Amino acid sequence: MWRNPGAPVDSYYEVRPECTDVPKTKFRVKAGKTLSARKWQVAFSPEGHLDIGKTLGRIQRGGIHPSIRGEVWEFLLGCYDPKSAFDERDKIRQQQRVQHAVLKDECQIMFPLIGSGNLSLHQ
């Protein structure tokens, strides 16, 4: 898709057979308008502050390249402040990992099958 401007975006992503009633998208990728990894890196200052204005227009016009989609969405969803520095975001990531591990342990105490690979919805 990323090399074929004008192709429908839904031709890039596989649609599950049970979702055949989903209408086709009208969104088309515009040549050279996709937010690339290079353009994404250029949007950061040396301290790590993001100039979100440099990226939003490009995202609206052409989408986000799959290789950086997760990282970009962390900013779009408000997980990180665009004014935050690299080290601040690393600290937040570490805190979230610790919090996730604690929550996972609590879930496993309440429901021992969680994480065991033996969880079945049809018991």
UniProtKB/TrEMBL annotation:
Protein name per its UniProtKB record: TBC1 domain family member 15-like
Species assigned in the record: Olea europaea subsp. europaea
